[in-house]
């Protein structure tokens, strides 16, 4: 099973927006940076827009921008906006709910997962977009032909 990369894609896009504070970035430009389709960018950033993390404008000068200062955007708020879990669920098939063993395993594993998610959320709340963007350093938006901007 392939893990979802939506959170990674969102963080990557947000770091690009951080490094271009005076310029709105189009979905097409971000898609080129992220090596994906503009529709994927719009879907992911649309969820962040609903959470108030980014804003979007249409038209000639339109595009995506950060809606808040990067030091006020926690990884936890980004993760919550994406609406997905970073942890693998272990619940059994719904048809097995009458089995006492399945209920016991699901109950115990559910407690472990809930504890792990609470720890993860607390840790994500302590890291901001600003922290990540500063570690990433400035990268050229459009590298010379044939080069990968992230390999430098």
What is the fold's blueprint, element by element?
Layout: H1 6-18, H2 27-34, H3 38-50, E1 54-57, E2 63-66, H4 75-82, H5 100-125, H6 129-136
Antiparallel strand pairs: 1-2
Helix pairs in contact: 1-3, 1-4, 1-6, 2-3, 4-5
Biggest sheet, spatial arrangement of strands: 1-2
Residue share in helix? 40-55%
Order of helices and strands: HHHEEHHH
Largest sheet: 2 strands, antiparallel
| C-alpha geometry | elongated
Structural class: mainly alpha
Please count the helical segments. 6
The beta-strand count equals: 2
Report the C-alpha radius of gyration, rounded.
Answer: 19 Å
Beta-strand residue fraction: 5-15%
Low-confidence stretches: 143-147
N→C terminal distance:
31 Å
Average residue pLDDT: 85
Structure description:
The protein is mainly alpha-helical and 152 residues long. It is built from 6 helices and 2 strands. It has a two-stranded antiparallel sheet with strand order 1-2. The longest helix is centred in the C-terminal third of the chain and has 26 residues, at 100-125.
């Amino acid at each position: 099973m392939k893990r979802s990369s939506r959170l990674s894609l969102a963080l990557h896009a947000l770091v690009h927006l951080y490094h271009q504070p005076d310029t709105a970035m189009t979905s097409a430009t971000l898609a080129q940076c992220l090596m994906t389709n503009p529709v994927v960018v719009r879907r992911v950033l649309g969820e962040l827009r609903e959470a108030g993390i980014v804003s979007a404008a249409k038209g000639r000068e339109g595009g995506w921008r950060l809606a808040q200062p990067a030091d006020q955007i926690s990884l936890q708020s980004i993760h919550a906006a994406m609406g997905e879990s970073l942890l693998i669920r272990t619940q059994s098939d719904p048809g097995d709910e009458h089995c006492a063993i399945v209920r016991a395993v699901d109950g115990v594993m559910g407690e472990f997962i809930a504890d792990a998610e609470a720890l993860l959320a607390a840790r994500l709340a302590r890291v901001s977009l600003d922290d990540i963007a500063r570690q990433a350093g400035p990268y050229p938006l459009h590298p010379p032909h044939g080069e990968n901007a992230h390999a430098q």
